[in-house]
Amino acid sequence: MSLVDLVTEKLKPYPKRLEHVLGVKERALEFQKIYGGNAEAIETAALLHDYFKYDSIEVQKRYIPANEIEKYQSVPVAYHALSAAYYAKDHLGINDPIVFEAIYYHIWGKTEMKLETMILATADFCEKNRTFSGAKKVYELALKDLQQAFILSLEYTIEYLKKDGINPFYEQIEVLNYYKENTWNY
After folding, report:
1. Considering the domain boundaries, does residue 186 fall inside one?
2. In this structure, is residue 161 part of a structural domain?
3. What is the pLDDT of residue 102?
4. What average pLDDT does the structure give for the chain?
5. CATH of residue 167
6. Structural domains in the chain (count)
7. pTM listed for this prediction
8. How many angstroms separate the CA atoms of 175 and 10, rounded?
9. Residue 29 class from Cβ within 10 Å (0-12 exposed, 13-18 middle, 19+ buried)?
10. Could you tell me which residue ranges the HD/PDEase domain spans (predicted)?
């Protein structure tokens, strides 16, 4: 079974999520043509990034090492990314560290991330089916400056969380500050 077939089958009950995943793949490969990076790794990570999005937290935690469950217990939304990364590696035999990192950190990136991770995180925020405020602006900026688009996507996300009375996870703030203060070398 191909990876597209596997993801299509898994997300069959959630057609909007499947549309999103395919949109992220398309947008990420568009950015790859501009900025470079490993197209196969980007496509693989894009297809798998939300693989566990609709599974219960308990199911997601089955794939994640205990120390990482504890680290992210205040932001269980991150579990879907972690579980997908470990599932790809441990159950699908995808041992590419680029794919693992891109899936694992697709929500808010990481300091000193690989190009493919920044591409996926940015594409996830601004894929063509996104209708929330800022998605179009991030996309337009990403066509010119990927780092600035990534920063803007984090700023929008943090602003959204704060409006909902949610404190951003400390890694989100660290990553945002890091990329605001450092020129990214990929």
Report:
1. no
2. yes
3. 98
4. 96
5. 1.10.3210.10
6. 1
7. 0.96
8. 31
9. middle
10. 13-138
